[in-house]
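BUG-767 | component: ligand-complex export | severity: low

The export step for zinc ion jobs runs without errors, but we want the raw record kept on the ticket for reference. Input record follows.
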Amino acid sequence: MVQRIKAYVRGRVQGVGFRPTVYRYARSFGLSGNVYNTAAGVVIEVQGETEKVNQFFNRLLDVPPPQARIEHIHREILPTTPLAPFSISPSDPAGVIVPGFPPDLGSCEDCLRDITSPTNRRYRYPFANCTNCGPRFTIIQALPYDRQFTTMSGFAQCSRCGAEFADPHDRRFEAQPNACPDCGPRLALRDIAGRFIPGDPIRECARLLAKGAIVAVKGLGGFHLVCDAANTEVIALLRARKNRPAKPLAVMFSRLAQAETHCQLSPAARKALAAPSQPIVICRRRPSSSLPALLAPDTHDLGIMLPYTPLHYLLLSEINPLVMTSGNRSEEPIVHDERALNRILGPIADFALVHDRPIVRACDDSVLKITGRGAVMLRRARGYVPDPCVLPIAGPSVLACGGDLKNTFCLTRSRHAWLSQHLGDLSEYTAFMNYQNQLLDWQRLLGIEPQVVAHDLHPDYHSTRFARTLGHVHVPVQHHHAHIAACMAEHGLNGTVIGVAFDGSGYGPDHTVWGGEFLIATYRDFIRAGHLKAYPLPGSEQAILHPARMGLSYLFAEFGKDWESRAAALLPSLPPAERGRLAQMLQSPHPLPQTSSAGRLFDAVSAWLGFDERISYEGQAAVHLQTLAGREDGPPYPFLIERPEGRLILSFAPMFAELLADLRRRSSRPRIAARFHRTVAVAIARVCSQIGSAHHVDRVALGGGVFQNDLLLAMVCEELNRVGLQVYFPVAIPPNDGGLALGQAAVALAALADPARKQQPESEQCA
Ligand code: ZN
Ligand code: ZN
Ligand code: FE
């Protein structure tokens, strides 16, 4: 029997070789019909023997093109009619073809084979790509995704490339950035003075790196600062020049087997490293690794990645491994064009390896961490952006402005939410300018005119002030509510959850600094059902930069007149004069800001256990504490749950007394650090269990930067399961403020769906 089917396919089906694959499959089953792109996705019309038609669809679903993601396929049966042999038809021009806005993809096996085969015409060509790999997001100037609207428009294809591009049987059929040494982009190596260095740019670059040079290398989404990862002196020099004393540096290895000799790779780590998104993957370093400790002095982990463009592949086959860190000065955006190159070339880099394919928008490397419960996203950018998330709520288009640190913004249309690439710290002027430009760029590309603007409740965030300049309906969203909503949205949770939001700080509607919060939350609303006991922040920003100050604040609050002798013993980095000044602040009649921050709790304990410096990156003291704990474990210390006015207050005062006694007894510090983590996990589970029974809720959603600590995350999951609660934590979006915008968007959509909602979140009163 002959059948004719029209199928509408949605998902990531454009710019990934979907139509040629459909073409090949349809032809191989002898079907007639056609395939074309539309604004919503791809339409396939096939006619042939019913059995062949079924086999065709099964094949397409079982073996889609490597980079495609079929979200939904809707089939209609049509009356049969004479049809021409199967062909690819031109795009349906109606509407903007938004779904064809794919992420950059790491080199595929076939392209790597091409560049390593001496007889291939792309042998050693750094810009080889095909439909299954190569640049996308970073070269697209406008949509639809056609070469003329990319930065490849300046490179006319030679006749051989043109023939590949036009042949549906070729893997470069309609590969928009298709290029070869005759017609495509070229590399050049230059020095600080702008002089070009003769010879093969890659081999010369490798030679300079081997001699200890720092080179700015233009890659896919911007410049990397690159140096020899085995050379301690040059790493120290890079750190000094970049003003990055301790924050871990990422390392690129030539291949998986190389990485394996330095890091313990779980199956999840291997899978993540080899995925087409090719992120930086944070793995446990082998104690036997010969690489300098200076790469990541605070931890036993190392962020590693594999070459993801032919350029990196060729460079790494000359010298391996290499440090590859974002080409920027401290928190500024990554440099992505030659005009800004002098910000890093000269002050930081000695040479620059450049090419003439412009990068439209900067995009950092993504960062994943391998935890006991799989891979978790810490920074979402290259390889993942701009793939949309699907929200459980639809509504008018929303712009969610995000937070100020690790900023991303979010734009929605119907159920789709596009989270921008990581944009950094908005208090940096250049980052804030970049934020505004990116926002305009994204709105134009996606054709989204937001009707509603969601932003953090903090009145002084740059993102909030910016949001207020936009003439739309505004929905302020409490910081920790947004963290929990982001986790809910990622997992498609509806209804009510217990939200555990542990982070550094977020603005509370009661004008205190929140950060250790237990919420009863829906997208629409929340109740602050409990929180960590609050302590004063002696000298706000200074208290964050210098964890010993928090250590002192806790001692002062909990140990009465004993505080001074304890502080003298525990916090040697605070000289007596400074201790006195801080004590005066703590006793002052003008009360200091109070915080329930979990981040500050980790800071204080880390300071008592020997983290005796000012931090040079966010979370450094907590990283120290986790590293100290290693793989130790032990019984929890005691803690206290108080219940003034119905709200649960979690106090660790009883733990402090025992923990400090253990320190005085010179008990094992790793064990003390591990028992601290265990205590926090058990206490979280106890509080959740009490809130859960009171509110008849058995699902817990976690959020906030403290859950980047995978030791804590594992223990919290274990303890929550032990008390019979289901736990959800962010996996595909960062638990830190990088995921905030997604939560803000979900809250705004829920608020709009329910006009009865007040515009300010409910904060007081525990039901
Ligand atoms: Zn390829
Ligand atoms: Zn060519
Ligand atoms: Fe936060």
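Assignee comment: Attached the raw record above. The two ends are 65 Å apart (CA to CA).
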